[in-house]
## 1
Amino acid sequence: MRLKEKLVLGSLVGSVRDGNRLALARLLSQVENNTPEGKECLNALFPYTGKAHLIGITGAPGSGKSTLLNQLAYTFRHPPEGEQARRVAIVAVDPTSPFSGGAILGDRVRMRELAGDPDVFIRSMAARGSLGGLASRTAEVVQVFDAAGFEIIFIETVGAGQNEVDIARLAHTTIVVETPGTGDEIQAIKAGILEIADILVINKADSPLVDNSEFALRSMLDMAPIGTDYYHSMEMRNNPGLNSPKDWQIPILRTVATERQGIDALYQTIQSHAEFLQESQEWIERERVNLQTILDNLIQNSLIDQWRKSISNDVYQTVLESLISRQTSPYQALQILMKGVLP
Amino acid sequence: MNEPKIRVLIAKPGLDGHDRGAKVVARALRDAGMEVIYTGLRQTPEMIADAALQEDVDVVGLSILSGAHMTLIPRVLELIRANQQEHVKVFVGGIIPNEDIPALLQLGVVKVYGPGTVTDEIIRDIRAQLSSSEFSEK
Ligand SMILES: Nc1nc2c(ncn2[C@@H]2O[C@H](COP(=O)(O)OP(=O)(O)O)[C@@H](O)[C@H]2O)c(=O)[nH]1
Ligand SMILES: [Mg+2]
């Protein structure tokens, strides 16, 4: 681990709560690296979490997520008359190169307007081999921001695939960003990702194809109204907080992020969604889903670790070899390994 | 515990018009397994220091072609120190006249790279700097 930590643990937690940005930055690294110190700080900070509005933003690379966040965060900092400015954190996840383990984290390039604001904190995270659009410690990093008093926490996902449902389990509000293209393209993009959307955004609405896209998106939503079987796949049924509840009509908004067009409407829609969640009790439901997901993941990882330690490598390798030579089926291999002794 | 990664901020202070060189370095560092935060063109020293803080980086690489290095670099160093990030190693690349180099090193820049530097050298230097000080055994 790094020796550069000059702040000792106890004071790290206190400093983070007091708004010390250096302490916050260092704690985020500890948490990201899953160090024992990081875990201890998370324990101490946990009682202070649960206050922030977590907003996920997902969509293909290049669709304009970072540019939108720049504008949205700016609006939360400089809201319309009569509304309070909120402290904003942004967690931007980018892919890790599977070849080198390195990463280029480029989301800050689009977030210039937020520079110099002491109530904005942007942190880039590499996915570090985790699939599903988030890094394995994104949820914990978000907890630190929450405990540090950031009221709005944006999470930008990698945006690579169909299986980015993790963000819907973490966030209260999930924004899915599409860009104009042919209807077919949209169909292909996301049979899976549309169902996690609370708000659909068609960014780059300066393109002439925008009408087509909106039409295609609307008909997809109409074809599968909330509450039908299409939306209530097995997983959705088991995780009631994952999809939009019945009486929230998923809005489709057009934006041109580079021109700040449509941003105020998006801001208002996010606020309305937060109100809706609060009034319908769905907020609490989503917090349940979030925390249960975190717990279940921890249990899973820790059981695997424990089991790995309990079984001799010889037994494991022998079973593996016999699987590879097709003398043992995967299910038989599992049975042997769960018993822990070779037959 | 995850293995900590070397985190590097690559920034272009001043009004330079292109960032080809900076991008080449960013990619090379990524391919060497580092996490590179890339901030793009026209960064003020304040933006650079603030990003270095928020991202908790180990290294800041500044690329300057504009000739304004003798005003921009001291300011970046000063702000990084004011943020209590003295441990951050600052490297400079770009077009820097030889006679300016001693002054920059004196100010705390670890090394200055001219045009045509091979990226392997930068990678080696970063690793050497961090293993000798901030990064202990993994
Ligand atoms: N024409 C147009 N370009 C946009 C718009 N929003 C973003 N872009 C550009 O799209 C590119 C990718 O944007 P970025 O925010 O990095 O996308 P991300 O990968 O989803 O985070 C950048 O060059 C942006 O300037 C938009 O509304 N219209
Ligand atoms: Mg982005």
Note: The radius of gyration of chain A is 22 Å.
## 2
Amino acid sequence: MTDIQYLAPHTLDEAVGAFAAAAGTARILAGGTDLLVQMRAGMVRPGLIVDIKKIAEMTSIEETADGGFVVGAAVSGAVLAEHPRFGKVWPGVLESINLIGSTQVQGRASAGGNLCNGSPAGDSVPAMMAADAIVTVQGPNGRRQMPVEAVPAGPGRINLAPAEILVSFTLPPRPPGSSDAYLRMIPRTEMDIAVVGCGVSLTLTNGVCTAARVGLGAVAPTVLLVEAAAKALIGSKLDTAAVDAAAAACSAACRPIDDKRGTIVYRTKVAGVLLKRTVGIAADRAGRA
Amino acid sequence: MNETSNKWIGQNTIRPDGADKVTGRAAYGADTTMPGMIWGSVLRSPHPHARIRSIDTSKAEALPGVKAVITAKDIVEFPLDKSVVLGIQDMRWMCRNVMAREKALFHGHPVAAVAATTEAIAAEACKLIDVDYEVLPWVIEIEDAIKPGAPLLHDFIQFEGKPSNIAGTLEHKLGDIDAGFAQADVVIERSFTTRPVHQGYIETHACLVSVSADGKTTIWSSSQGQFMVRAMTSLLTGLPQSSIRAIPAEIGGGFGGKTIVYLEPLATVLSKKSGRPVKMVMSREEVMRATGPTSGSMSTVKIGATKDGKIVAAQGTYYLQAGAFPGSPIRGAAGCAFAPYDIPNVISRGFDVVSNRSKVAAYRAPGAPIGAYAVECVLDEIAEALKIDPLDLRIQNAAREGTKAAHGPVYPRIGLLETMEAARAHPHYKAPLGKFQGRGVASGFWFNAGGESSAQVNITEDGNVVVTTGHPDIGGSRAAIANIAAELLGIDYRRVSVLIGDTATVGYSNLTGGSRVLFASAIVVTESAEQVIGQLKARAAKVWGISADAVVWENGEARPSGDHTGNFPTMTLAEIAAKASETGGPIGAGVQLNTTGAEGGFSTHICDVEVDVELGIVSVLRYTSFQDVGRAVHPAYVEGQIQGGAAQGIGWALNEEYIYNKDGKVDNPGFLDYRMPVCSDLPMLDAVMIEIPNPKHPQGVRGVGEVPLVPVMAAVANAVHSALGKRFYSLPMSPPKVLEGLDEGTLQAAE
Ligand SMILES: Cc1cc2nc3c(=O)[nH]c(=O)nc-3n(C[C@H](O)[C@H](O)[C@H](O)COP(=O)(O)OP(=O)(O)OC[C@H]3O[C@@H](n4cnc5c(N)ncnc54)[C@H](O)[C@@H]3O)c2cc1C
């Protein structure tokens, strides 16, 4: 193994500078729960590791004046769970992050790492998509924002430019009657990788679904935002016909592979089942009568 | 020994190994280092089946930092035409398994090994070894391997006069099978498949070997038998056993999978060649690709019973995967399958099938869970057909004292019936069940074993006790031996220190396997302790000037008796030890024996499951094991054995399997995708220990470590059937398989 340099800058500018200077041989380190595993397996051999956990903006959680949240990309699942308000407003996003790994992994693993790792099975990604989260990224050419669904590019690939760092997730304010939920299917009860994951965020006004977003994981090369499923829910009272239609839309959106983790048939069927269950939980949390 | 008077036997005393383990101080296989130590690494076959035309190691040898490179040439060859058996292994296969000789027979088969100053250099050097392979067609699954025209692994295997992958057969026969079936009112015949599953020990194989300039060899390694390590290493390297000292490390799980060597002979040869101590540690991936799982299987079981529930005939046919070399546990499958029942007419057959996968190794009651799975599922169908409660059917047909088993013995006093009756009377058996929930029962048998054991019991100068035995402790033997020694000597168990000796410090002891260790070592420890007590009495007698016959040993003290009662103050162990040099020298005794009388173990399980019918997920809700444990010398450990068996069986039943890709390679060589259960997957696993003491053992001990796994897959499968009204004939009952099996009709019926 060649020597590895390690840097833990206190500012984003330093981090971006070092990342850029290393010209492709550097890796960002958030919690390291993907990166270190990949290094040990010999899949990646970075020359430089840039640890972003000392950068205040990347490890803070801010509730904005309008009731939205800005969550630093390197905030760990355990820290997010301790926030007094976040989990009340975004229970689905929080549960999606909190079911990553185990207690030990939770002390480190971040939503930023989960997204940037580029896995189609990353658990927090469908929930973040459903939440309509916007990501802020910073690179040598400054800052930009994009919706979270624009980040995944394919298994292990993301749409960040060279030397760009994911800074934070911005979650919008919630109108009354809103909530969200995330469910995944795994053959075990923990320490497993999603065979299908489904995030749903919705708003109910007088029993009618006025807004909905659906994110679906592990059924295609990237996590999917399933607009057809959302459409089937919006305007309905979440009656069986509407939820069935949304479930069918989820199954139709699947472009899975047959692999050791699940068959095409199984994943397609389960996508619909999870949609129904997730909608049910989100609706109950939103105060459905 | 009278239960009620026991002070230490039956107590959950503090584990002698506990403090070191919870503080991280226990030294496992990979934890020992030496000055000048270098690292070994194995080059493994990238092909599932290939002839090795030549190996060129020159480039690897030239790499700076490389100190030695070895291939099969450096390992002692055992010719194919002459069997040399060591324990359950045949050295013809062992020498070819540790290092591929003529052919590489599975993906991951070692073909060369390197020792270098760093792990990275060793790994780099492996890549520089040129192996010229002639790639051959390969075969993984049993059904493919036994087809006519299948690729053949070994030229020398013949079956029914023709070249074949069926390497051996075994048959147990009792009565007249045709006459038996002719008496039956109901006959049910079903076929089953199970997948190979790994023992799943947390600690990967690891060793450190130092061969000195004079050939004296020291091996530190994690195994289930330091004497097995010594003997195998001796045979495979040509070093005499007297030159090898094998020191057992703490073991991070074995479950049968460490009754065999992989690394020790390679590290020994590398150390000899390089003149440096060599350490080797397998990765999890190497463990999954190249160490023994237990067999996958294909089986057919046919059982006939009369209307009133008497089983009159039973026939079982078991094909078991052996991996690349002969030696699957067909004896356990075919031998244990029908052993819990009194059946007059039985044929049970096993077929040993080789294919291009890693050589199987022992796994807790090798073969027996496979045997029980098929039999216990068919019995459930018989009960259903006859409308008899499944436990009642088993009780009616249970083997008991005097029953002649198809695999040979006539049973002495056994506790099978008690396990079944305890299950029937238990609240678990009557607890209500909800929608898509079901309950299954199953019973099982394991042979258990005796064999060679040695022990030394020494009294220290300050009057405490050191007991040395020769078996790696993988299930609580140190704690149990401490209890027994304390009981016999009449002292506090904290004054007894139990150690596992190495091959140079304790007499030959067979490996930890077959549920034999406490059975066998308790016998030699008991005899040693009795000799020590004899010496203690004699020393006191000498001090008092009376005859030794007039001294009794009670509560850790010598007391004058008979005419001399009350004439002298009693002498404690410490007082006698303090006078040892004046009264005849050190006090201690050792016993070495080939023990016999390990009677079989039986258990009966109840399992409740719930099926998520939309996702196909089976969850175990409640599980209770009822086991005849002989005598629970350390009950918490016995309970742990029972719970561990249930956990492993649930994994085998529901999720564990080797997945091969289209290139004949294992596609899930790690714990993420090879799904053993995690804690949250399991309910509290209840253990009901039934103590029917083994009449042939001083403390009544029966083996308890293996039978807990035997009934589990069948109990789970029967519960799934009870929940859904549909039976799955292949394991694992993983979510995709279960969901695929659930059609509308089944679901409606189940509701
Ligand atoms: C035992 C175990 C269990 C797990 N279970 C789950 C699970 O249940 N569900 C699941 O989804 N995942 C699971 N994972 C994977 C992993 O924990 C998650 O993906 C986690 O969210 C990664 O976060 P991290 O902060 O540790 O990322 P890191 O490992 O630090 O980073 C991951 C990748 O993203 C890059 N990166 C990280 N942060 C940034 C950034 N701000 N900008 C640009 N690039 C960045 C890194 O360079 C790296 O390539 C598990 C891992 C382990 C070891």
Note: Residues 517-544 of chain B form the longest helix (28 residues).
